[in-house]
Design goal:
Blueprint: E1 3-4, E2 20-25, E3 31-33, H1 36-42, H2 46-49, H3 54-57, H4 64-76, E4 81-89, E5 92-102, E6 110-116, H5 125-131, H6 139-150, E7 157-163, H7 164-168, E8 182-190, H8 195-201, E9 207-209, H9 215-222, E10 226-228, E11 230-231, H10 233-240, H11 245-251, E12 252-262, E13 265-275, H12 283-320, E14 331-338, E15 348-355, E16 359-367, H13 371-390, H14 395-407, E17 415-423, E18 428-434, E19 440-442, E20 449-450, E21 468-472, E22 478-482, H15 484-487, H16 494-508, H17 516-527, E23 535-542
Antiparallel strand pairs: 1-11, 2-3, 2-6, 4-5, 5-6, 7-8, 7-13, 8-9, 10-12, 12-13, 14-23, 15-16, 16-17, 17-18, 18-21, 19-20, 19-22, 22-23
Helix pairs in contact: 6-12, 10-11, 13-14, 16-17
Length: 544
């Protein structure tokens, strides 16, 4: 809601209708009883209302029939339904607090209690409002919490805007003239309207430019509240293009916009509107709105900063994740990687590099630790290992050079690693390990077995040399490389875990012709139980 500044017009005040009205409905929504209190509040005689559908009597505004249907459905299941609804009453129209509850049980009809909801900001309102804002660090949800506490106590409608530069670029200062006029609507609410109807008219996430005469822009630039009485032409035209927009524009006649300022930076603005049946915004309302905006701005800024850090982390994680491996035509390979906790990257890495002559290098490594520190070491090792393998160096030489590199890293981290070269022509694989768990091979003519090779010292301990071993890998045999997170837990030793891996491989590979990727998934699910460490499994075999 934006507009131009014009003198406030004197308007008729709403009558004092603070009395309660109670009436009952049949399960299908027809009025069953209509006592004198209902006649006084709504101005309808009992003989004209009894037997009529309540949606034809009171709930006649845009979206209200659907709202009444929702209320009847909820009461029909035995639940209580409450809302503040804009409706006509004797002497005018305005917000009415409505409570619907089952008469005796599900399907028994409804008891409706209604009372005119006057706008009174009590001394404890700001404290209660603050308790309801910022329950999460989700930015759209926080914005919706703000407008929900403002309506109907402070206003008949509220909308929250944030400067797009704060969301997209996180720029605290104006980059160029007029750049601050680009805003994003995060949330809106109207009295008596379902959220779906309001969101269809005042769409969350919509980005647009505030016109130069906009009070919202003036409030943001001056960092002071601004009152106005008419919507500007740009806003009116935008509303007119949507269903219900003209009704919205004609409903509200008093407006207030206050800046959202946190840590000395204007994030956006919070706009309020009142209908003709509500009093104009007075000095007390302006003060309450300004205080609400101040408290809301801190919660919104916290959510914004969290969202920025989350997006930064996701971008970094995407950059840390490996690219699709380059697998030669003569080799079938599959892999699974499960980081510990909620992180998408950790200390494990794996890679498959195509080599000349239909050969392929497979590397699996594990930088000790978890989280960003282990990930930082992992990235350096993965890039270095990939580069060394592409030089077609033998596995033991790849590990020797990696060992030298790790020893020169700050704080002397260490890691385990296994490097393998598969030769499809000779049906063999050459492998070397640096403190890494031994590979397992499952051949078609027998149970899976552990391949014996010198374990070597972990990378970073200055081993200076590593020893390689060559073993046969006939077509159809499946080689399994993994990290200790797959097989070892607090309750399962490394040896016991490898035994479970062998059994899982035999079971998963027992179905001839089944894709290796599906086998890899089954083995991982069988062994990955506690999630205490990053987990990696790579399966590879020479095609028949």
């Amino acid at each position: 809601m934006t507009g131009d500044e014009r003198p406030l017009l004197p308007r008729r005040r709403a009558p004092d209708l603070s009395g309660l009205a109670a009436f009952t409905l049949h399960p299908d929504g027809r009025v069953a009883t209509w006592p004198v209190t209902a006649e006084r509040l709504f101005g309808h005689a009992a003989q004209a209302v009894i037997g009529q559908d309540i949606r034809d009597v009171l709930m006649t505004g845009p979206g209200q029939r659907e709202l009444a249907a929702d209320a009847l459905a909820e009461v029909g299941t035995g639940q209580v339904w409450t809302a503040t609804v804009a409706m006509a009453f004797a002497g005018g129209s305005g917000p009415v607090a409505v409570r619907c509850e089952p008469l005796a049980g599900p399907g028994s009809g409804a008891l409706v209690i209604a009372q005119h909801a006057s706008m009174v900001v009590g001394p404890g309102w700001l404290r209660r409002a603050a308790d309801r804002i910022g329950t999460t660090l989700d930015l759209p949800r926080t914005a919706r919490e703000v407008v929900n506490v403002a309506v109907p106590t402070l206003a008949d409608a509220a909308t929250l805007f944030v400067a797009e530069r704060m969301l997209a670029a996180d720029e605290a200062a104006l980059a160029q003239a007029g750049y601050s006029s680009v805003v994003r609507r995060l949330a809106s609410r109207q009295v008596g309207q379902p959220a779906m109807a309001t969101d269809g008219l005042l769409r969350p996430g919509e980005v647009f430019v505030l016109p130069p005469d906009s009070p919202s822009l003036r409030a943001m630039d001056s960092n002071t509240p601004v009152q106005f009485a008419h919507l500007d032409e740009d806003t009116l035209q935008r509303l007119a293009r949507r269903a219900g927009g003209r009704d919205f524009a004609s409903t509200y006649v008093s407006f207030l916009t206050v800046p959202l300022t946190a840590r000395g930076v204007v994030l956006g603005c919070l706009n309020f509107a009142r209908a003709a049946t509500s009093p104009d915004f007075g000095p007390g309302d302006v003060a309450a709105a300004d205080e609400l905006a101040s408290r809301a701005a801190i919660c919104l800024d916290n959510a914004r900063l969290y969202d920025r850090e989350r997006r930064t982390a996701v971008a970094l994680q995407q950059g840390l994740l490996p690219n699709e491996p380059s697998v030669p035509d003569g080799i079938e390979a599959a892999s699974r990687y499960l980081p510990v906790g909620t992180l998408r990257v950790g200390g494990d890495w794996h890679d498959i590099i195509a080599l000349p002559g239909g050969r392929a290098a497979l590397i699996v490594g594990d930088a000790m630790g978890h989280g960003p520190e282990a990930a930082a070491v992992m990235v350096q090792l993965r890039i270095a290992a990939h580069t060394l393998a592409e030089l077609d160096l033998p596995p033991e030489e790849v590990l020797r050079r990696l060992d030298e590199m790790v020893a020169n890293l700050p704080d002397a981290p260490f890691a385990t690693c296994i490097a393998v070269v598969i030769d499809t022509t000779s049906g063999t694989c050459t492998m070397a390990a640096a403190g890494h768990p031994p590979p397992v091979v499952a051949r078609p003519d027998g149970p899976a077995e552990v391949l014996e090779l010198p374990s070597g010292l972990p990378l970073g301990l200055g081993a200076r040399s590593f020893e390689s071993v060559q073993v046969g890998l006939p077509p159809g045999a499946t080689l399994a490389l993994y990290t200790d997170g797959l097989v070892e837990t607090r309750s399962r030793s490394l040896g016991d875990g490898i035994a479970v891996l062998r059994e899982a491989l035999d079971s998963a590979l027992a179905r001839p012709g089944e894709p290796l990727d599906l086998c890899c998934e089954r083995v991982t699910q069988t062994l990955h139980q506690s999630g205490e460490d990053d987990t990696t499994l790579v399966l590879a075999r020479i095609r028949h």
